[in-house]
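Ops channel
N.P.: pipeline sanity check, posting one input/output pair.
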């Protein structure tokens, strides 16, 4: 009887988890438009500790993750790197993060992310706006918008074209680089689904 020699497969070092978490936190802070000083003030954490977190020299506790998530208006799991092969995001009813003013542009109302990633090429938002909300500032962005009105009315003005009036059940698609602004003339709250798709070159 012969025995073959057993060779152990060399261990492969896993990626530095602390650095991945730090990079994710830093990206979330920048999306929120916060300086490290402002985030330190909002969370009660020291700026030095936040610097250690973002550079991977320290790992956050669960409690710290929750404090950061609340200040950054994201879910705690959004601050953790996604495992390889898990390229999907499931959002339960009412659990999507609300978008910041920077992310939703010049439009008023409550914007809640329904599907997609904040940095993804495509994402869907549920938008709820109070009755008789006047037009905001002109807004433009790379990519494309698709809007479906669930209830109420939506008026979209295009600076170089014309205004469009939408009722519940209506939808519209347009390129985001056309300067546009929304207003809501209904006496009832307006609810709509906004799907935004970015061009890859703009995303990168």
């Amino acid at each position: 009887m012969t025995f073959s020699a057993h060779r152990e497969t060399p261990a492969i070092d896993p990626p530095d988890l602390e650095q991945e978490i730090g990079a994710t936190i830093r990206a979330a802070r920048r999306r929120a438009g916060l300086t490290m000083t402002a985030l330190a003030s909002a969370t009660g954490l020291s700026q030095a500790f936040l610097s250690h977190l973002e550079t991977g020299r320290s790992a956050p506790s669960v409690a710290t993750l929750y404090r950061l998530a609340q200040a950054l208006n994201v879910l705690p799991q959004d601050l953790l790197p996604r495992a390889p092969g898990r390229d999907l995001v499931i959002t339960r009813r009412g659990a999507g993060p609300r978008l910041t003013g920077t992310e939703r542009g010049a439009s008023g109302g409550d914007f809640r992310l329904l599907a997609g990633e904040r940095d993804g090429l495509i994402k869907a938002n549920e938008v709820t706006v109070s009755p008789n909300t006047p037009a905001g500032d002109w807004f433009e962005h790379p990519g494309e918008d698709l809007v479906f009105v669930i209830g109420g009315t939506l008026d979209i003005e295009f600076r170089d074209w014309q205004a469009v009036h939408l009722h519940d059940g209506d939808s519209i698609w347009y390129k985001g680089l056309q300067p546009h602004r929304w207003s809501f003339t209904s006496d009832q709250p307006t609810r709509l689904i906004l799907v935004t798709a970015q061009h890859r070159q703009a995303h990168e």
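N.P.: looks fine end to end. Helices lie at 17-31, 36-43, 47-54, 62-72, 101-104, 200-203.
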